[in-house]
Specification:
Elements: H1 2-21, H2 53-65
Length: 66
């Protein structure tokens, strides 16, 4: 009987700790005077561009509008 109880408690604790491990801490806004983090990325033309410039312009406009 004690072995079953120990096994049950061990499995229960593993399950509970797994549930709490999946939660993400809430992001807090920086206070006045603190710095914010911004990310900037530069995109460059890939090697496999098969569309003409008119199609490329339409694709770019569709990305900007959404």
């Amino acid at each position: 009987m004690p072995a079953k109880l120990i096994l049950f408690l061990a499995l229960f604790l593993c399950g509970v700790s797994g549930a709490f491990a999946q939660t993400k801490p809430a992001a807090k806004e920086p206070a006045d005077g603190e710095m914010k983090t911004y990310y900037m990325a530069f995109l460059k033309v890939g090697q496999n561009r098969s569309q003409n410039s008119l199609t490329a312009t339409k694709i770019q406009e569709a990305h900007i509008d959404t």
